[in-house]
Amino acid sequence: MADFVDQVVLHIRAGDGGNGCASVHREKFKPLGGPDGGNGGRGGDVILEVDPNTATLLDYHRRPHRKADNGKQGQGSNREGANGADVVLPVPNGTVVKDAKTGEVLIDLVGMGTRYVIAQGGHGGLGNAALANSKRKAPGFALLGEPGDALDVMLELKSVADVALVGFPSAGKSSLIAALSAARPKIADYPFTTLIPNLGVVTAGETVFTVADVPGLIPGASQGKGLGHEFLRHVERCDMLVHVIDCATMEPGRDPITDYEVIEAELHAYGKLEDRPRMVVLNKADVPDARELADIVRADLQERGLKVFTVSAATHEGLRELTFAMGEWVAAARAARPVEEPTRLVLRPKQLGAATFAVRKVNDNLFQVTGEKPERWIRQTDFTNDEAVGYLADRLERLGVEEELVKAGATAGAEVVIGSMDDGYIFDWQPTLNAESINSGPRGTDNRLG
User: Fold this and answer.
1) Which residues are annotated as part of the binding site for Mg(2+)?
2) Which three-class secondary structure string do you get for the chain?
3) pTM (2 d.p.)
4) 215-237, pLDDT tens digit by residue?
5) Going by CATH, does the domain composed of 357-449 fall within 3.30.300.350?
6) Residue ranges for the binding site for GTP?
7) Which residues are annotated as a binding site?
8) Looking at domain 163-336, which CATH architecture does it have?
């Protein structure tokens, strides 16, 4: 079983709003107590929150379906239903949230404590007490709660470290991070021993920083070869890149200069990393031939403006100088940037019930009505209750839907779809259903629906 997951598809659903209650107050000696049905509770939200104690997306790999609680139904005596509990999902710092279907980036979660409402709970339905007015004094119906948001998102973790170690497979990056810190990654003498980034905490005097051991890169990594995209995204947030070069490799066509140029070409092709400072570590100096080769190529690398360190992860030679050099760069980078704070999210929710709607003539006998208000009203209507259906007809008439249908050429008996053509609500339109005919029948009925 994997113990590190940096990409996962999460299926989330916010809670549905509770239904409103249709109730009439009943009390001795008060035969006309009036409506007292309470409103339904709001459904719970699904919230992503950056948590310093979370380092992987493993929990969501094992349990990818998450749902918030529904709101409770309203009750008589003007008692409102309880709101559904929110579900807060902790994610690591540096998590990118994308739409699983389109790939659109929804939010980049950086900064401890940052919160983002990824799925909003549905609104609770109004009880009949809230629906009463001077003309409809005792409604025999209530509105249904609205469904909560449901969507699939992809969570993608980009490691947040100060220094990234990059290089070919088996260059000694895992051995180096094990020698510099308390991290204990898997170390073996074969390519791609490291398949997940390992993070280590390194101390250089008063500077404490993190180092990421990025899995080995090969030619073509920027195009995804050898899981290159999965590995390279962990480099994006690092402040500094350290090339770890194997000076003891016996592979044909490989030498320190060529290795450096190949990895640099892949980093350049991947993009977003041009401004990162670089240094070079010539590793495995404990091997005699490797030390000689390191002495030969040092001048060439320094002429390119690079700081070069000859080290041995096995004997710890040169590690102190390397550690303090990295610490000096990290301290300078931290001093130059503002203090990291939780991302300030400005929420601009849509206005509920925006008045815009559209009527489209599909054919001579079929018309489609789309718009936030009409579609929302359809979701709120209990179609088993005639009075509720009459109330919907009144709302649509006041909005101007009937007038627009007439302009579009609709006649009595024409089919009208409110919403999408696939799953919208279909009914036979009768223009005689208008707000001028006030219901005077028993509660729960509407005399216009005969």
Assistant:
1) 174, 194
2) CCCCCCEEEEEEECCCCCCCCCCECCECCECCCCECCCCCCCCCCEEEEECCCCCCCHHHHHCCEEECCCCCCCECCCECCCCCCCEEEEECCCEEEEECCCCCEEEEECCCCCEEEEECCCCCCCCHHHHCCCCCCCCCCCCCCCCCCEEEEEEEECCCCCEEEECCCCCCHHHHHHHHCCCCCCCCCCCCCCCCCEEEEEEECCEEEEEEECCCCCCCHHHCHHHHHHHHHHHCCCCEEEEEEECCCCCCCCCHHHHHHHHHHHHHHHCCCCCCCEEEEEECCCCHHHHHHHHHHHHHHHHCCCEEEECECCCCECHHHHHHHHHHHHHHHHHHCCCCCCCCCCCCCCCCCCCCEEEEEEECCEEEEEEHHHHHHHHHCCCCCHHHHHHHHHHHHHHCHHHHHHHHCCCCCCEEEECCCCCCEEEECCCCCCCCCCCCCCCCCCHHHC
3) 0.68
4) 756 555 444 444 444 556 667 77
5) yes
6) 167-174, 192-196, 213-216, 283-286, 312-314
7) 167-174, 192-196, 213-216, 283-286, 312-314
8) 3-Layer(aba) Sandwich (3.40)
